[in-house]
Every structure is written in structure tokens, then in C-alpha cells.
Amino acid sequence: MPRVAAKICGLSTPETLDAALAARAAHVGFVFFAKSPRNVTPDQARALATRAEGVARRVGVFVDPDDALLAVAIAAGLDAVQLHGDETPERTAAIRQRFSVETWKAIPVRTAADLTAAGRYRGAADRLLFDAKTPRGADLPGGLGLRFDWRLLEGYRHAAPWALSGGLDADNVAEAAGITGATLVDVSSGVESAAGVKDVDRIAAFCQAVGRL
Ligand SMILES: O=C(O)c1ccccc1NCC(=O)[C@H](O)[C@H](O)COP(=O)(O)O
């Protein structure tokens, strides 16, 4: 069992999904958000999820989803949902209960004050994902390659299992995991050649770097 596991997020083609699976990514992410260059339809997700079944955990990424979207997406074959919008602890807990699905909540971080929000999700989410807060008015709440000050998580007492995200790549993931103590690291644009275009060599390099930790 590796000490640190990788999640490759925003996969949308069989070739790049296969690269993540071959590189032993523990989690693969599919984005269900129309404005994202990584958006997948439920049909695309079903094909990808089938390919990954039993090999990696399949995580659907959502922004303030309604129940109809969640139902269709989960039926396509997801092991977990990642909520990346303004979902409250109550809404997060309701999704977890209604769909009986492992539920992650993204916590946008810029300053230490942002970490206090994490405690509100104790018991509501199965996992928290600390990600860089995107600028007001940005098109996307994630997947922009932005990082936050990792030292904010140094010695931080976590309310739940968690993962680190935001601006990671093969060159900086060792430093990030070393400072924060993360045992699960999530990447999207750091393994792309252009926005939404995953690169099989960068996926392999990231997973190799994580495997060395
Ligand atoms: O990636 C997207 O397009 C996206 C769209 C809407 C909500 C969340 C999104 N991504 C969430 C992720 O889990 C990303 O992997 C995370 O924000 C890190 O992205 P990056 O800094 O590009 O590695």
C-alpha cells in the first residue's frame, strides 16, 4: 500500500483514463459541470466509469448539483461524489444520506480563516478536499492550477479524512505532501497540456512522483 495516493481529476477520454489506471492512480475524477472544459455527459461518464470499475475509485465532481443530476451521474457508476460548490453541511449530509454514497466536500482555502469552515462538515462529509480558493468571478471553482499556502495545514487538526488539491504537479507534490502531511493528493491542470486536455506523460510523471513518497 503506497504511503500517498493520487487522484487524477477531470478525465474525459478513454486514453487518458487508461494512463491514470496504468500509473496506479487510486482515484479518478469526472467533472459534471457544463462550464468546465473537462465536463462529461452521463453517457461519457458511464463508459469511463465502466473502464475504471474495480481498478480505481471513481469520483464525480459537482457544483451545487440538484438531485436529478446526482441520480443520473451516480447511476453511471460512481464510488464517491465531490461537492465543489456552496453546498452547506446540511445539503452535504442530505446528499450522503439520500444517495448512500461516499461524499467529499471541497473547502476553498486562501487564509487560515477559511480552514474554520472545514469543521462545520464534521459528520456531514466522508472526506474534505482542501483546494485553492479561486478569484471572485472565476468561471470555475476548481481546476485552475492555483495553489494556497500549504503551511496553513502544518499541524492542523483535521475534522475528517482529507485530501490536498490546488496547483499540484509532478515537481511540487513532494514538497506539498511533506509540508501538509497529505496522504491523498489531487491534480487536474498540472497533468494537462492545455485547459481540459490531459497529457498521458504528465499523468505518469505525477503518479511516479507520488509513488516515490
Ligand atoms: O476541474 C474542473 O474543471 C472543475 C470544475 C468545477 C468544479 C471543480 C473542478 N475541479 C475540481 C478538482 O478536483 C480539481 O482537481 C482541483 O480543483 C485541482 O485543480 P488543479 O489546481 O487544476 O490541479
UniProtKB/TrEMBL annotation:
Annotated Pfam families: PRAI
Protein name: N-(5'-phosphoribosyl)anthranilate isomerase
Catalysed reactions, as listed in the record: N-(5-phospho-beta-D-ribosyl)anthranilate = 1-(2-carboxyphenylamino)-1-deoxy-D-ribulose 5-phosphate
Every N-(5'phosphoribosyl) anthranilate isomerase (PRAI) domain range: 6-208
UniProt KW keywords: Amino-acid biosynthesis, Aromatic amino acid biosynthesis, Isomerase, Tryptophan biosynthesis
Family: Belongs to the TrpF family.
Pathway info: Amino-acid biosynthesis; L-tryptophan biosynthesis; L-tryptophan from chorismate: step 3/5
GO molecular function: phosphoribosylanthranilate isomerase activity
Highest taxon, organism lineage: Bacteria
Upper taxonomic lineage: Bacteria, Pseudomonadati, Pseudomonadota, Alphaproteobacteria, Sphingomonadales
PANTHER family: N-(5'-PHOSPHORIBOSYL)ANTHRANILATE ISOMERASE (PTHR42894)
Leading EC class: isomerase
EC number, as in UniProt: 5.3.1.24
